[in-house]
Design brief:
The protein contains seven helices and no strands. By secondary structure, it is mostly helical. The termini are far apart.
């Protein structure tokens, strides 16, 4: 087995240890693509995977609004309370950091493994939630001065 496959297997194991199903599933799918020799999928996934993932994430986040569970009045009232205004500001900051992170991950793919390992460790040992690599990359871009 080659080193890349071993790395994917190791990251899948970290996903299992940390109960991080998305990481585990992603690593197993990538490992299967390698083992089955479907290498032509990698350039397409590298180009479009992040966009597709963000679309799916946005659908998940916006579903309560679309289903009517969060009303238009509730959205309007969010501009009247300081906690909601703070939440809007933090949402803007996180979106900005995510954008910087996406650019950094695209321009410096060597940091992706470190961000992923850090996220898995955060989930496994600090009871975190596995949504951090993009934001972590954005924070990293601020620290290393890359956009």
């Amino acid at each position: 087995m080659d080193m890349t496959s071993l790395l994917l297997l190791g990251l899948a194991a970290l996903g299992i240890i940390s109960s991080n199903s998305p990481v585990t599933i992603a690593m197993v799918v990538l490992l299967l693509l390698r083992v089955l020799g479907v290498h032509q999928a990698f350039p397409w996934l590298e180009k479009n995977g992040l966009t597709i993932g963000i679309i799916i994430l946005t659908i998940g986040v916006m579903t309560p609004l679309a289903s009517g569970r969060i009303s238009l009045q509730t959205v309007g009232n969010s501009f009247l309370h300081w906690k909601s205004l703070l939440a809007i500001g933090i949402g803007i900051l996180v979106a900005y950091l995510g954008g910087r992170g996406a650019v950094l991950m695209g321009s410096q793919p060597t940091v992706v493994a470190g961000l992923l390992i850090g996220t898995v460790i955060g989930v496994a040992f600090f009871k975190g939630v596995p949504v951090g690599p993009l934001i972590a990359a954005g924070i990293l871009s601020l620290l290393i001065g890359r956009t």
